[in-house]
Each structure stands twice: as C-alpha cells, then as structure tokens.
Amino acid sequence: MTTSSNPPVGASAETPAALWPQTLVGVGVLVVGLALAFGAIGISSEAGYGGVGPNFLPWLVAVALTVCGAWIVWEARTGGFREMDAPSGATHSDWAGFVWVSAGLLLNAALITTLGFVLSCTLCYLLAVQGLRRAGGQGGVNAPRTWLVDCVTGLLISAPVFWTFTKFLAINLPGLSATGWI
Asked: Is the pTM value of this prediction over 0.85?
C-alpha cells in the first residue's frame, strides 16, 4: 500500500479556517452584484440607440457579478479554490514602490490641468514604472538611460491616447497648447 501526499480528487488541502477568506471574497462580490442590480432598478429601460436601453450595461454587470459571487461562495464552501497555486512573491509589502506609484497617480491628478494630459500622464508612467522596477529589485533604476527610456515610453503611450480622444472621439482633455496637439 502506498501513501500519497496529494488529497483525493474532490478533496481539498485547505483547512476550514483558510476557507473563510475565500468565502468572504465571494460574499463581497455577490453583495456588489446585488447592490448594482438594486441601483439598476431605477434606471430607465426605454430603448435608445441600437435598441438597447441605458439600463442594459448595469444589468449585465450586475448579473455577471452576482453569478460570479455565487460561484465563488460555492467553490469556497465545497472545499476551497481547487488547483490554486501556492502564493508567490515577497513576504512583505514594498512601501517604497507603493510611494512611487502613489506619487505618480497623485501628481497626475494634481497637474493634469497645468501640464496637460500628455505630460502629466508621462510623469505618472515614469514614476509608476520606477516604483515597480524598485519593488521588483531591478538594477540600474537610477541610470539616466532608464529614466530616458521610461520617459520616451510614457510619451509614446500618452500622446496617441490624447490624440485619439481629442481628434477622433471629440472628447476634451486638458492640453498644454492652444492647438490641441499636446
């Protein structure tokens, strides 16, 4: 007779105490779905453009969240999430990386009307990537070449987004110049 360290099919290696966080996540998703459904009740169902009313998307998301929430609760209560990989990554948070990313987001929000969309989003990208590089332990994060590459990459991402929204979709975003091209 051989013994196996693997649990039988359908069983879980999770302890009952470990199943409660999984259950709470499912209940949280389920509650959000039900709350969204409750809010969608008050939205008019009168058909609009393309025969779809303004309440279609809220109901679609509410139903999807409710089904997913119920499924997560069912999975958690019948043995836990199956075939889940062991947790990976650092054992503790990297607060310096968090500060870099947070600074990028907050400066973007604070400076978007002053610097314009393109430059403030480039700054956000630059600081967020620096935070992620530092949190990941990458070398050379202070090298001028790294900063330059990140800055150019941020510009190459934010400029087409700005032009797409302002020129093709006619959505006003804060610009730096009166021409609307930056």
From this structure: no
